[in-house]
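Running this now, will post back.
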Amino acid sequence: MGGGRVSRRRIGLLGGSFNPAHEGHRYISLLALKQLALHEVWWVVSPRNPMKQADDMAPFDARLSKARKMAAHPRLRVSAIEAEFGTCYTADTLKELKRRFPGVDFVWIMGADNLAQVSHWHRWTEIFTTVPIAIFDRPSYSLRSLSGLAAKRYRKNRLSPRQARRLVGTPSPAWIFFPVRPHPASATAIRSSRKAKRIK
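Update: finished.
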């Protein structure tokens, strides 16, 4: 073996209920692969979301199956790793991932809607101090997310989109807001449409 430096894997993590997975998830994952120069994006499908009603949640296996069909890309990997870990809080999942994969540089990916309300997540500041974060714009959320508690608290740690390829591997806290063309897909809208069709 030569003495050259072995490049570390660069993995994006897109977590959530995926109830259901939709084109918006795929859209920001493909953007992240390109903008952040990632090797892969893992869709971390949560067995349960402590912030959402369980009675509105499709079965875990059904959500996994739908996510795999939607991902349909060799560098988008659908993972049941939270079920394996037994974690339901993002802070715990990230710490376990870093422990199990010491040779990987992770970045957390989320939409602007989550940046707007991440301060309500369990131990949310640990998320910012565990891995860098990439936030992608979503319709009507820009102003609310960038004026929220998380954006204000970590305003000095915000990088420019021009520094995107530096984000992965940058010591936390570090984050970027990407003002990209938002994708209109919404899991909430999809579920509402399905309910309306059942009622008719």
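The first strand starts at residue 9 and ends at 16. More later if anyone needs it.
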